[in-house]
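Hey, quick one: can you model this chain's 3D structure?
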Amino acid sequence: MSATNRGVEQHEQIMRASRAYADTNADGGASKLPQRELFVLTCMDARVDPLRILGLDLGDAHVVRNAGGRVTSDVMRSLVLSSALLGTRHVAVIHHTDCGLQASSDAQIHEQLRERGVDVRDMMIGTFDDVDASVHDDVARLAGDPLIGASATVSGYVYDVDTCELRAVGDPTA
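Sure thing. Here's the predicted structure for all 174 residues.
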């Protein structure tokens, strides 16, 4: 099957799912304010489902996902807006086991991307060796930021993709 045909098939699946969702949720009703005053930063890995893992419903939290669940400038922008304008008071940073950014280096991934013709320039990748240390680093960065740390608690977690269990990393009241 060609890439074009796969794209058309993917589009059709997306539209069918959207129609089914709209049919069962026609009233919408969720507030733009996170009802649990929670901001979740986690990885884009398809095995990580933050709403189910945390027992959240639509409207409970703002969820930002990126490669590795790392703190980037765009995460900071989103979190500042969420906390300053929309009432976020708690931040959960969730990394996971068996992450594609673990046990590699930014330089190695930059090289792989260059080989595929991607101009990476100074793109921050955010690789790490130790998942607990990566969580600790991101929690410390957020808690130490004057725009974030003064208005929100920041907690860190590691999700185990094999056992589906979440465990706290560090002091959950930072």
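One thing worth noting: Residues 59 and 103 are 35 Å apart (CA to CA).
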